[in-house]
User: Fold this.
Amino acid sequence: MDSAALKDVAALKRNIKQVNPGAVIIEGNSPIRVDHPEMVTGKRVLVVEDGPTLTHGGMKFGAGTVVSHNLKAKQLVDPGPYLVGDLKKTFDKYPEIGILLPAMGYGEKQLSDLEDTINSTDCDSVVIGTPIDLSRVIHIRKPHTRAYYELEEIGKPDLNDIMDEFLKNKFRDKVRQ
Assistant:
């Protein structure tokens, strides 16, 4: 709700009701959080975003970029000169990625290329805007922090209400059997 135009939210609700009239709609915001804002403010940062989001997903930015702008990073560092292996091919295929680094790491070779590129890039710190914490799968030798979306529910019903009702009905069905 916090990033969409009201007319777009209204259109989405109409479409949901048209496809599934019984659907429960839970409204929410998606605030972006960062673990260590001091690693972003005034720093030259390398922003690593979700690879598929930037490539075939067609998005131009993600949580890492938003946090870097909101916290007034001094500069977003271009990883281009430091790319290795498969990441060079990714940039050749998707030049519109620009100065963001897509996390393309589905196998050992791609993860190694990502790790080498991050560790070679001349930056003060790394902003990880991927759904997973990359530092759990590669060794990042630079100061780094995660940027991520959270769900902030608005009003009722919320997810707890829906799950409580679901479990109550599920349990009731089991008792009847």
The chain has six helices and eight strands. The radius of gyration is 20 Å. Residues 53 and 59 are 6 Å apart (CA to CA). Residues 29-176 form one domain.
